[in-house]
Amino acid sequence: MLTITFPPGLMRNVWVGMFGAMGPVGAAGGTVFPGFFGQLTEWWWLFFFLAIFGAVVFGATSFILPPDGVPMDAAGTVDYVGAYFGVVGLVLFNFVWTQAAVVGWEEPYVYALLIVSVLHFAIFVVWEGKVAKEPILPLGIWTSPSFGPMVLSAFMSFMGVGIFLYYVQIWNIEIRHYSNLLTAAANSAFAIVGTCGCFVSAIAVRYLPAQVVMATGAVAAVVAGIIFATMPAQQTYWAQCFPAFIIMGFSPDFIFTATQIITSNSVQRKHQGIAGSLMGTIQMYGLSTGLGFAGTVERYTDDGGRDQVGGIRHALYLTIGMTAASALISLVLIRIPKDRREGWDKEDEAAA
């Protein structure tokens, strides 16, 4: 909605940056509340609180959000068939990897569901490209400058970031035996720096090529992963955990803000809602699917559960590899110049 409402320019970058800042702020708050309710009250109070809070937010949006005005495509229809094959393919692929981390790849149904998910993806591509009159994901969007490599780079970065953030919590709680509230306090550095990183990236995309902005976020994750993967099991928080959080704070929001802004500036206005939604999906899907990959690595490298620290280290090595590959893709395959536009292009105004 932000990229459709605001034309290309500094104000769009700032507002998208503010939206991206809600990620680290929400993540930090999300660890505080479970820590509070889980440590000081009965655990189920957390879910009552979340339900009440969600109802308040839902009600507030009815008064805060502006009316739609003129729809971008008033006569449009929903591609239900494409939505089915796309969503089911994504869900099954994610389930396969997360389940394999629990039961192992020896189970036949894991392979079977992996094949089914790939078939759904294949049918989705054929349907969207050959059959659907109004595809839910127009394949032409992939012809936008550097769009495909950018999606791949962002996906790998988000997978690496998700692995890092999950195993940091596991390390602090199970290896170092932090309390729930102390674990939440440890995350505050990530929240503060991540919020600042959103605004920095919103400005940086106006003065630096897109590949540099994205690679910066990926390299930050590489460095943070190396710091965390090499620290001893027991150590003061300030020695390596704190610096890793500080550096990692620049990664997810740098990448998210940059991809949202670059995507919205690279495709036509009529496709910007789709492009923005796709990048949001890539973020959430990468954060969750990466855990399945890392869980598989941990399962087969922790000596049957006897070497938990070793298993976590190997999972963090995967973070380093994924984010390093993301940085390489950004620098080699993405070529989007600095964008200092102010206002819609003529073709975008005509499409609106």
Automatic annotation (TrEMBL):
In the bilayer, the protein is annotated as: Multi-pass membrane protein
One cellular-component annotation, GO: membrane
Q: Name one GO molecular function term.
A: transmembrane transporter activity
What stretches pass through the bilayer? 12-37, 43-65, 77-97, 109-127, 147-169, 181-205, 212-231, 237-262, 274-295, 315-334
Q: Where is the Major facilitator superfamily (MFS) profile domain?
A: 1-338
> Is-annotated flag, keyword Methyltransferase?
no
InterPro entries (alphabetical)? MFS, MFS_dom, MFS_trans_sf
State the Pfam families in the record. MFS_1 (PF07690)
Keyword terms, alphabetized: Membrane, Transmembrane, Transmembrane helix
Protein name, entry field: Low affinity ammonium transporter
